[in-house]
Design brief:
The complex is a heterodimer of chains A (about 200) and B (about 160).
Chain A lengths: L12 H9 L3 H20 L5 H17 L10 H19 L4 H5 L23 H12 L4 H12 L4 H8 L3 H22 L9
Chain B lengths: L2 H12 L5 H13 L1 H15 L13 H10 L7 H7 L11 H4 L7 H16 L17 H17 L5
Classes of the chains: A mainly alpha (about 200), B mainly alpha (about 160).
The complex binds zinc ion (ZN).
Chain lengths: ~200, ~160
């Protein structure tokens, strides 16, 4: 049992995991508090319904707890729970009749993005919120492996190395995947919103 | 540095992934090359369209509730809870059944958890999300996940040259 001093250094995830496994609900609650924000933000990329987001994140933590003994301490707790969250999200979207097709769709067989046509910057009259809605609309149309890297890089501001660790892929793969993801994003954006092409007006 | 070297480096440059020793010659090239500067502009335009959605606030007491459920043995994946909790409107009759049928094996522990669930459902906010597409199509998600995994593996082996 690890002693927790209120004003000492924050308790390590690994000891919270150990205590949770021993049935300590407070320890698990601390873990949830530590990661709930990031998981709410992650789920928010897939749906705007607060209720759904809450369900997904809750489900993620419950699943995590149920298999906590399989947590390998060599990866970070976030890495581990991120994967559970991703599976839960896909599962959830699947049941809503959304996205699994997209998730399985092989990006390689899509017509490859020779992106002619340039994109305008978002119009100054568009509010941040409106742009975000367009972003989400387009993102939800991308294959999951592309959506994933864009979210991690653009929204979570993660370095290539961290993305590589999280997704268990090489740095080179992160780079090439991001490249293709951005192209695909741009293509889809132009296809759905031709008015944002340069020279469209 | 020629244009093809420059173009290959631009994404990492914009993502702040270049060492200064790599970034400096690129910057020099960009000073001289209109075309490559155009590529940078274009890449920045794409990024400008990638705007994070407005965050949703974590409800007060969320962590405590989740921890209580977890300790009580709720294994998660109990979508019926979500559906019931989702709000009054679709509860008219059976429409949720399709979604709800996720083979939900109620273990002895889960039964205990149900009491808790009922309680927390009552506590839950009742605002209504947009209509849920209640597709009864329940083909295996595992397949989707498996396909993703395969793609990852294949992707690994086709790392870009360098
Ligand atoms: Zn050039």
């Amino acid at each position: 049992m690890v002693l927790r001093k209120m004003d000492a250094a924050p308790v390590e995830d690994s000891s919270l995991v150990r205590d949770s496994l021993a049935g300590d609900g407070t320890a698990f609650q601390l873990l949830v508090e530590r990661y709930q924000g990031r998981l709410f933000a992650l789920a928010r990329n897939y749906t705007k319904s607060p209720v759904e987001i809450e369900d997904i994140v809750q489900d993620t933590f419950l699943k995590a707890f149920a298999r906590l003994d399989s947590f390998q301490h060599q990866s970070s707790f976030y890495t581990w729970i991120y994967r559970i969250a991703t599976n839960t999200l896909l599962d959830h979207l699947k049941r809503r009749g959304r996205s699994p097709v997209q998730a399985v769709e092989d990006p390689e067989v899509l017509p490859n993005g020779v992106c002619d046509g340039n994109l305008m910057r978002p119009d100054a009259r568009l509010q941040e919120k409106e742009i975000a809605e367009i972003t989400q609309d387009v993102l939800l149309d991308l294959p999951e492996i592309f959506r994933q890297v864009l979210i991690l890089r653009e929204f979570e501001d993660m370095a290539y190395q961290d993305i590589a660790d999280l997704l268990e892929i090489s740095i080179g793969t992160v780079e090439s995947r991001l490249f293709r993801a951005r192209n695909k994003f741009k293509q889809k954006l132009l296809a759905k919103y031709p008015e944002f092409a340069q020279g469209a007006e | 540095m020629d244009c093809s070297d420059a173009l290959a480096r631009i994404p990492r440059y914009l993502d702040d992934e270049l060492l200064e020793a790599e970034a400096a010659p690129l910057r020099a090239h960009l000073m001289d090359c209109v075309d490559c500067r155009g590529q940078v502009q274009e890449a920045r335009s794409v990024s400008a369209w990638l705007v994070k959605p407005e965050p949703v606030e974590v409800p007060a007491g969320f962590a405590a509730l989740v921890a209580r459920r977890a300790i009580a043995g709720d294994p998660g994946a109990l979508t019926p809870v979500a559906d019931v909790a989702a709000g009054p409107a679709p509860l008219t009759s059976a429409p949720a059944e399709g979604d709800r049928m996720r083979s939900f094996v109620v273990s002895a522990v889960a039964v205990a958890a149900l009491v808790l669930l009922a309680l927390s459902i009552a506590l839950r906010r009742m605002d209504m999300p947009e209509n849920r597409g209640l597709s009864a199509d329940d083909a295996s998600t595992d397949q989707a996940l498996e396909a993703l995994r395969k793609m990852n593996e294949r992707d690994q082996s086709e790392d870009p040259k360098e």
